[in-house]
Fold each of these.
Amino acid sequence: MKKLLNDPRRFVADALAGFAEAHADIVRVQSSPVFVTRLRMSAGKVGVVSGGGSGHEPLHVGFVGHGMLDAAAPGEIFTSPTPDPILAATREAHQGAGVLYLVKNYTGDVLNFETAAELAAMEGIAVRTVVIDDDVAVQNSEFTAGRRGVAGTVLIEKIVGAAAERGDGLDALADLATRLTASVRSIGVAIGAPTVPHSGKQSFELAPDEIEFGIGIHGERGRARVGMAPADELADRALEAVLDDIPREGERTIVLVNGMGATPPAELYVVYRRIAERLRGIGAHIERSLVGSYVTSLDMAGFSVSLLSVDDELLSLWDAPVRTAALRWGM
Amino acid sequence: MKKLLNDPRRFVADALAGFAEAHADIVRVQSSPVFVTRLRMSAGKVGVVSGGGSGHEPLHVGFVGHGMLDAAAPGEIFTSPTPDPILAATREAHQGAGVLYLVKNYTGDVLNFETAAELAAMEGIAVRTVVIDDDVAVQNSEFTAGRRGVAGTVLIEKIVGAAAERGDGLDALADLATRLTASVRSIGVAIGAPTVPHSGKQSFELAPDEIEFGIGIHGERGRARVGMAPADELADRALEAVLDDIPREGERTIVLVNGMGATPPAELYVVYRRIAERLRGIGAHIERSLVGSYVTSLDMAGFSVSLLSVDDELLSLWDAPVRTAALRWGM
């Protein structure tokens, strides 16, 4: 295993320490328990909190800041955070108007956020939870009852974060997040496996001409192990899988072409070119796009595609100023 | 070779097409000859133009936009652009106040930008050129007389771009770029080799426990092939090489910890943590930092460290609004 780390047991802690130092103008990283908050909370605003296993950076800690998340609880690599840091993050994010949890659908995450919500309720903090399950690849998987939550999460965190920033109430935000979850769909393709620091071994083995279609963000099996193909063909297959689930003919959409961690920008733009071409072909309008590595799986190589249908209101929330470590515009 | 591409001969063209589509609100990509300009030029402003071989994205095309570059000429993979696209980019960037070339020190780039400058002069366009040679690893190399230009280029493009945007004249900008070049120093470390699409083979071979210390951004040999070590040790050695060249005790600095293309964010933050700790130890002040993959080498794994000393004026130029595909704040 060749990775830029010291002791694998210190990997998450070291990375968070560097993250805290690099972005001290945006976030604060707390220890015991470990969670990340934006530097300045907005009084009276609903707190938006997320979290989950580490190894998917910049998700979620890189999206803490003005206009997106108020706090995030990162677990160990591919490991759900316990209720303790989630509860601590909740207390800080609660500014009198309650807290919304955005939770990717993995059994551990769902359970631990549920427990934290119960504990928060006992302290008088109103919590609503929306579970994100945007991955069309499989109906159930190793860590999941139902579909997995993957890269579409970023789109939801941005839009819901903007709505919270403009002052929407807890129920309205939960409704918005639910509506977005119903509309966003994703699928991922791995052309190279990640190596988990603790084991030092690749999560799965691919032959030189093999890829995993429908990969999960922890290296979980997808729909099929198939042959490597030109980028346009992979993009087509990914897009078709997403469109099979929700057709987008004539729809206005936001498109995310996401890198899995070890895939350089030029390759992602090759994929995006084809996705855009095909969406035009069915009369869909790409209103906004994101191309980059936003929800990674350690050093996995590959990409995912996420589509979200939008209207004028959602677009204005998307365009609203945001200032986080990984997504920033308008300020 | 497993890459997200179609025909290797179409790789750069496909990636640029996707880039153009994804960032149509910021850039325009011209074909025959191929170059990239910002969407709206500022009348009367000095044009700032860069370019070089592709495969280093987001450098340079991802830094075209308000407050940074006016145009960039991307060559084929690791191949200098010819004078033709550089000249075409120069004509568009020239808004009556002349054009500044920021050129990384590689023989092909230097020659082709020189030829373009001569052709531009014949058309009455005043051009000044500053050659960037921030890599302390080696004094000369395969493609270079003198030191190579590497990731420090981003810091120069940002600061000089901001000075051009505020209205500085051509000579003042050339002086500023020269002063920055004298201050910025970098070194790179590869823990995994890149694969060039045309050959389908890795640029060099590393044993499982080997790294290349002082790697070039085209996979050129560095100072030494040495054993893999913990991240803190690699960070220490890289920082020492940079500080041996210019000590920074008590200096105010901007620090760039740059990913080489296949290295995920968490590993870069592990490196940054140590760099920050060591700089504090010598009484240097990190005024600003950038941690991410800004100057890549296709899918090479590893990092580079760049340091630039700054004062209040340079910091205000750094903080000035910028809106490019890859670097954006304040707007």
Amino acid sequence: MNGYELTRFFDAAPRWVWSAPQSQIYPTLRQMEQAGLIEGQKEIRGTRLKRTVYSITERGVEELRTWLGTSHAPAPMRDSFSLQALFFDMIDADRAAPVLKAYIAEQEQLITEWRAHREALLAKDTDLLKERLKNRPPAEHDRIAGLKANVFAGQVAVAQARADWARESLRLLTEGV
Amino acid sequence: MNGYELTRFFDAAPRWVWSAPQSQIYPTLRQMEQAGLIEGQKEIRGTRLKRTVYSITERGVEELRTWLGTSHAPAPMRDSFSLQALFFDMIDADRAAPVLKAYIAEQEQLITEWRAHREALLAKDTDLLKERLKNRPPAEHDRIAGLKANVFAGQVAVAQARADWARESLRLLTEGV
């Protein structure tokens, strides 16, 4: 991938689990190249630099595997919607209700997108997965697709729990306890 | 509250929904005071400044109510554990399994803490809630406690969905799809 493709990749992030602002892509690529984790291949057209295509190095794969096999401390808790909901008793129910309804709609949207992405992974029908499977033995393809698809089943379950909770909050707000 | 109490408050954050590093507390208090959202009362003992106790101003309450009644764009997606899980096919199952088990234990711990906090809120038995209810009509107490407790019921449901998902991942990793 080159920097532009990575930017587009992270822009399509609602269905994804991580986002990166465009401003971070190029500096991070340079840092990773200096650290020997990736290497860039410059493509020249005529006398002009067309683009730099990066690929992971052996050392990068080793580093990634170490990170994957390590338990990391959870990120600091920053759930701004729950924080907001904790103080809904300070405003009228008819001001809080639209906020909860917008949140439910947002979770439903995520559920739809993640569910579709899960199906696509199970069908081995995403560009990234097809690319990945080229270098893996066919006997492992189902397992790899199943593991990746399951991550999105988890995202769906979390979004579903959040939507259910928001519906219960809406009921408590408008009908009382 | 004063700065020290706020720091301790955020340190007890596992059961809470938001955390703030100590380094942010004092600068943020100063900024909020300059913006007229809170005001500090200096307590002097003899000739020494003992501490500054802050309270919210009318303008601060108004600002808070506006924020509470507004739908905010969701924070960028940064779910590092799901990102890690997406690539578990790159490492041996016996290296990924302990990472999943540690994650399950972490979620179980959160569930225990949040459940206890929910119970305490329903029983109107937390210092913060007792303080808050002093200024609210008794007829509203059950509703206020119920709304706040429900936020933690939501946190429990999300942590439960994550733990269930991690158990299913563990099964997929070790038994295959």
